[in-house]
Amino acid sequence: MEAIYLDHAATTPMDPRVLEAMQPVYQEVFGNPSSVHSFGRKARQWLDAARRVMAGSIGANEKEIIFTSGGTEADNLALIGTAMANRDKGNHIITTVQEHHATLHTAEYLETQGFKVTFLPVDESGSVKVEHLEQALRDDTILVSVMYVNNETGVVQPIAEIGAVLRDHQAYFHTDAVQAFGLLDLDVTELGVDMLTVSSHKINGPKGIGFLYAADHVKLQALQFGGEQERKRRPGTENVPGAVGFQKAVELAQKNKEANQKRYQHFRQLFLDELRNENIRFDVNGEETATVPSIVNLSFPGTNVETLLMNFDLDGVAASSGSACTAGSVEPSHVLSAMFGSDHACTTNSIRFSFGSYNTEENVTEAAWRVARIVKRLTER
Amino acid sequence: MIYLDNSATTQPDPEVLASFEQVAREFFANPSSIHQFGGKAEQLLHAARKQVADSLKVEPAEIVFTSGGTEGNNMAIKGIALEHQDRGRHIITSEVEHPAVYEACQSLEKLGFNITYLPVDENGTVSAANVKRAIRPDTILITLMHVNNEIGSVMPIREVGNIAKQHPKLFFHVDDVQGLGKMPLTLKNSGIDLCTYSGHKIHGMKGTGILYVDKRTRLFPLMHGGEQERALRSGTENLAGAVAMAKALRLIKQKETDQAKRLQGMQDYLRSELAKLPGVEINSPADAAPHIINFSVPGVKPEVIIHMLGEKEIFISTKSACSSKQKDESKVLAACGFESSRSTSGLRVSLSYENTQAELETFIQALSEAIQQFKEVMR
Ligand SMILES: Cc1ncc(COP(=O)(O)O)c(C=O)c1O
Ligand SMILES: Cc1ncc(COP(=O)(O)O)c(C=O)c1O
User: Fold this and answer.
1) Could you tell me which chain A residue has the CA closest to the CA of B111?
2) Which residues of B, range 170-199, sit inside 8 Å of A by Cβ?
3) Is the pLDDT assigned to residue B321 strictly greater than 50?
4) Contact A31 B318 (CB under 8 A)
5) How far is B146 from chain A (nearest CA, A)?
6) pLDDT value for A327
7) Which CATH class is domain A16-255?
8) To the nearest whole number, what is the mean pLDDT of chain A?
């Protein structure tokens, strides 16, 4: 049975055109961009071209793009980097309970370093409330970090509204846009963000690269020290082929944004319609109309997440519980716990399906059909 | 093109590229995912880790995949410092470390750590006796490079390892980015607790590297998140990069055994030819690593020579690529005690196993002409 991949929020297949774009770099432009000879300078030109595309994709200046090894590093750099460099301005940080662990665990680390962190709640819609942020904001708040799209529910957060609230406040505003890039419009000025995280492998680019946008005025301390690369904010020999591959992925994502939105919207509708046709009992977690089309998180009453995942996998449906897994056991989702309370049934019976480049109408329909069959089997006892 | 700047970076091996591309195409999933796509990716990651461990003769659990040498060095140095600061806040290093070590140490100074920067002799090496003398009750880390990236001097890692063994409470980290595949270094029972490697210096991919972490060594992570790599290095794994790294390591280790003589022969040739050129002074010590030779042409700006050679598609370098934007003198050459006419005019040729004798002959010819030409213009 052909296995069907419905886990694009975890990672995506690399687009063949991305690999193709990287090939000449290995062969002809493999120099070190910091080398003074023309061979190094050529590598620098390619890197700069990639940087310009990154900047253009979010309405930023190329100087404001810091290439990192991925989303996790970019989130760490944003949080630790600004917290440590701006201690003189205050000690208070605001984030949310439903952030990705790259932000959440970093915020927890900053607590151990003496920072006060407020974790904003989310309600059953899966969204943070701007009022809660306004209430939490203090004069000594130096940083606010709110993800643009939640990776488990797909719910879009009110970033522009928060940006407006923070416009006249000293706090820097960081958004983790890893799950938003390529589907939503991202203009850093319109959103009012000072920092923004993007990861390449979530948009059909190579793994091992991402970027942090940090506005020119942001005071940032590096996480690692060494050469002068990335204007000293991220030393280390630059991953030029990675950057060029990432560039291609960004170009493709931008070019196909509307088409992809439509496509994934169609896939999601198809998937849900098929489940409904099969008379499966399920609930959509998070406000269905407020999510990106690529992610849908479903609760199947009367089932258990581990059994579901195991059976899906046996039948060739690759989905996930949306939360990190340790040695095969599935921890209850911190996102769903935050939305519904940790003892709510949906924290142990929910699955995230995420659509993307691997999918076709046929395999989405087929997957829905397999899911329905399994859920029926597990609940008709 | 004659590429003689292999200490800055190397051309990826076609076999490494093929592995990278195959994995990127066929095993794209996230190794942490528990479905079959993820399972296959995880298996492959295990296999890559095992292969690396076998190549280095250590255990798979002691291998952490990183994004490169800079991250490895920072992770080791800051990781030890932050995790073990209750035990002491003194660190020993040298004056000729790569900025990834040197500046990591300086950043710790700002946090209240005490750093001893040991001097080097005229051969660019730290003495093991000096290391021993520098050890204090509150020393938690010795961090030294194996092979210096500018002049190829080789540090007494074995001796320092033995000293470190007598002080079980301190950790010993080695930056072996330049030595890997050129100068064998045994990890097991060596007293080395941490060792940094970088993929792009051994014909692997940029953005890949390895930190060896002895299984008894605890580190504070640089990055927090999904707790990949035993929570030492969060972030979705670069699987294709890891497999490529394992492949590059296996290939370079093979060459290290098979082609050591040939590499040494090429360096010997360069040394004897450079010695014959009027106005050229060799800065690398006689017992330098076999792939690096540093020399000065006092009175001639190194950039001029780089440019003249560049026009003939011959690429060598001034100082290390990472610090070549600083216009001042080479810190390493100055630390060796060379006067400023020499420490500001250093040039580095760095070889790979892919270079040929014929290329070196062309280079020597071109260099000789360049110096000649320059002298005529200046006369
Ligand atoms: C919202 C979000 N932030 C950050 C990350 C981490 O990015 P990376 O896997 O590139 O380290 C992920 C994915 O794992 C994510 O979904
Ligand atoms: C001795 C040494 N250590 C560390 C590094 C840094 O490694 P990377 O370029 O992979 O970050 C280099 C190379 O630049 C080096 O030569």
Assistant:
1) A84
2) 198
3) no
4) no
5) 17
6) 47
7) alpha beta
8) 95
